[in-house]
Amino acid sequence: xxxxxxxxxALGLSCLATLSTPAGGQIADLEALEQNCDSELQRLxxxxxxxxxxRPHRCEGSHGVLRSPVDFQLRSVFRSFDDITxxxxxxxxxxxxxxxxxxxxxxxxxxxVNGQFYRLDTRTPGGFEGFRWDVxxxxxxxxxxRNPPRNALSVLALSATVGDTVYYPVDxxxxxxxxxxxxxxxxxxxxxxxxxxxxxxVSGSGISEPARRELDGAPYPISEAFDFRVPEITRAGDYRVxxxxxFGVDDDGTPIRLPRTYAVQVPEGYAGPCGP
Length: 276
Hints:
By secondary structure, the protein is mostly beta strands. The protein has helices at 39-42, 136-142; strands at residues 3-8, 14-19, 34-35, 53-55, 58-63, 73-81, 93-96, 105-113, 116-124, 130-133, 153-161, 164-168, 170-174, 186-190, 197-204, 207-214, 226-229, 237-249, 255-266. The strands form 3 sheets. Strands 3, 4, 5, 8, 9, 11, 12, 15, 16, 18 and 19 form an 11-stranded mixed sheet that branches. The longest helix is centred in the middle third of the chain and has 7 residues, at 136-142.
């Protein structure tokens, strides 16, 4: 399916574009997006040349440190993530979630680029299966560091329905379209405090008994995103992923354990891990 639409860039320039995906779905351009701002970040003092603030169809920019209590954050659920170049004169970056839900999809892009915390918050109306990410603001923040390391940026796509939030695995690619590929589903986590251990439990489609395991790699990075494979998810379906972090002990010696539950929906056509 081809779609001719008005593209409004991050700095307010407009042009006409025709976009498509190999599967025939629609990719939302900036003009189709809606603001979805984080009030906590908006309350922080302005930071950098392009501070996080309301911009056409999204909130975007650099921000100060948002201190949180002992906790961890889910930053991304993804299948593929290209090495990207932050350059508005070259190929754009396309983010897709493999299907077009009726409900709106919220997108959150977060990371540390050129020593600055970066965030973009927006959402697409129902009926889209991805969006094109204009990087002109990010390009200014990045300066000469146009090739961020893989873990510098994380992308999260989610849909909030009544009483539930569903996370969609994303593919992130340089270019106008996404090329479906096989690959194990991965999740990205961020923490500002020392995380002693992280346990993963997966249940849902095709899993007869919940699979629970402790992640290798402790001690985990602090103030840096890290990702891990979720090989238990091998096909389309609805899943429940419980991440339980342990953060030392409290005053009476009881271990501090924080469980977080995420509903993950994998669309039809998911290829799963590569190979036979």
